[in-house]
Amino acid sequence: MFRLALSRNLLRAVTPSLRTTISISHGYPASTALRSFRSFPAAFHGEQLTKPKPGEELHITFILKDGSQRTYEVSEGDSILDIAQANGLDMEGACGGSCACSTCHVIVDPDFYDKIPEPDDDENDMLDLAFGLTETSRLGCQVHMTKDLDGIRVALPAMTRNMQNKDFK
Amino acid sequence: MLNLTKVGRRFFSFSRSAYSKKVAVIGAGPSGFYTSLNLLKDKDPALQIDMFEKNPCPFGLVRYGVAPDHPEVKNCQERFQDTRNDRRFQYFGNVSVGSDIKLKELYDNYDVVVYSYGSSLENKLGIPGEDDHPAIINSRAFVGWYNGDPDYRDLDPPLDKVDSVIIIGNGNVAIDIARILMAPVDSHWKTTDITEHALRILKKSTVEKVTIVARRGFLESKFTNKEFKELLELHNEGVYFGGWPEEKFSSLKDLKLGRVDKRRLSLVNKYKSVIDEEAKDAETGKVKKVWYLDYLKSPIGFKVDSNDPSLLEEVIFRDNAITIQHDPDTGKYKSTITPTDGFSSIVCQMVIPSIGYKCEPMEEFEELGIPFDTGRGIIPNVDGKVEGRDDSFCVGWIANGSRGNINSTVMTSSLLAGIIQDQLKVVADGTDKPGRTSTESLLENRKVRVVNWDDWVKISEYERSQGEPKGKPGEKVTDYGEMLKICK
């Protein structure tokens, strides 16, 4: 399995524009608002998050597959998977956040990677099955927000075409 | 820089969105569902997705493939339920494409057909006896049996007459089967959704030894480390790893292995010592349940037990030699396997070949000009777009062969949905296909008993209620006729 050293460049490349990101939205109560939109629920599969207490908001920025960015104010303890799903981002979380698949794979900003407790064997074994694995890959369901991670940036791995049989062998 | 062609095409596609975008999906397994869910992210009200499933119940291998002790893997079913909130999607269960409705009729009714019907055949060893001996049971039947597939509920494997089983092939299915054969019923299986008929036979099981044999080497092991570790961890339930032929692979420790291989090697080394300390029964000195990994053996024959012809006596293997070379292009190690003149045998009473599955073409493929690669058992395709067709796509095992897991399914389905969306914009040539209305009246005229999503919810709730008193998440209904009665 390969661990590409892509993440550093990928994240650095988008850093300048990050400084000017203004759009801050909340990881709540997006789900209720969106569920009433009839054609949307199928594409939406979210967790309810608790609103952070005033003064205790932590920030996380997602770099989406198209390169755009979203920043959210979240509470300590929220997992990256829950945050992504509560905000309708394209993160599958097929196993429901139980570390049994790698569909919530994220690439973490190298500046923050070392602040996250190390992945355990189970997470590593699932990461080994993720597409586009990098040196700073983690599973979104296993990373929970702490004060140390305030301001963290994570990228959703872009998928590539021409991914054929050989990739599954 | 402004790209005028792109802008033009974009505008064009917007102006087209009033036309029909009607999609027929054949097969209600995870790849069909994930493709549908991804398509539904496009909010265009003109989109219509009708999913056809020959069984009354949906979810394919999530229901009939995933092991009962992996409920977390089945969590994706919750996600599939999301489709019911979207009226643009409809489930047509108990509808067989080819007989209840012709494939040609789907092409007449829909802009695009997505094949996600998976595999229906097993790969063969090509050894006499494998199809008709009661103690040679293909993994497809065995897995179907413990997971409640109606086709295999009467399999009755002779586990009460067997103490040694060989599993041929070492993918995750082989590991699942080893767990089924060895893990204790009461502590491990009783509260899963494993079928009652399987529990009954497993309770009587006398299996004490399982050997997982592969023709290639350790680095070519097909199981994932996650599943492997799970099996190794069964020592906590009295099931021990008996070892592997490490003398054949002594060179591995000198290689610069990648992370996954290194971890696999460290796992075998770590757990093989577990048996020395704990495994032996204090009174008898005997290890009760042990499993082994074996490599570099190609099965060439089964020897039937002369006392009880319903059982086997041993499996004969041709031994293979291995040379491991470093490939500078890929940076990986490449093993070459060559048959030797040596033979060996392993004593066993039962064999479970678990060497992958194959897909079959549908009857009308030839007539309608849908290509099929019989050798590989797949529909030839590029990223899921069927070769030579603009209106046909495939995903899952029918597209890639029987490999991959939920991750690759999520990935390929998402990619494919993008390709289909692009294609729908081009395909819409002004003709509005009749879609669902026509399908519904066709099926009604033919008096096909369609199982819709509400019907399925009834079946699924019934299963849950049947499982509850036993502490199981569900007790699967193992008869399609009974399913139809429940949702009447």
UniProtKB/TrEMBL annotation, chain A:
One of the protein's GO biological processes: P450-containing electron transport chain
Cofactor(s), names only, from the UniProt record: [2Fe-2S] cluster
Transmembrane segments: none
UniProt-listed InterPro entries: 2Fe-2S_ferredoxin-like_sf, 2Fe-2S_ferredoxin-type, Adrenodoxin-like, Adrenodoxin_Fe-S_BS, Beta-grasp_dom_sf
Protein keywords: 2Fe-2S, Electron transport, Iron, Iron-sulfur, Metal-binding, Mitochondrion, Transport
Recorded GO CC terms: mitochondrion
Compartment annotation: Mitochondrion
Any one Gene Ontology molecular-function term assigned to this protein's record: metal ion binding
Short name of any one Pfam family annotated for the protein: Fer2
CDD domains, A to Z: fer2
Domain 2Fe-2S ferredoxin-type: 58-160
Protein family (similarity comment): Belongs to the adrenodoxin/putidaredoxin family.
Protein name: DEKNAAC100194
Organism of origin: Brettanomyces naardenensis
From TrEMBL, chain B:
Keywords associated with the record: FAD, Flavoprotein, Mitochondrion, NADP, Oxidoreductase
Localization annotation: Mitochondrion
GO cellular component terms attached to this protein's record: mitochondrion
GO MF: oxidoreductase activity
Domain FAD/NAD(P)-binding: 21-233
E.C. numbers: 1.18.1.6
UniProt family annotation: Belongs to the ferredoxin--NADP reductase type 1 family.
Name of protein: NADPH:adrenodoxin oxidoreductase, mitochondrial
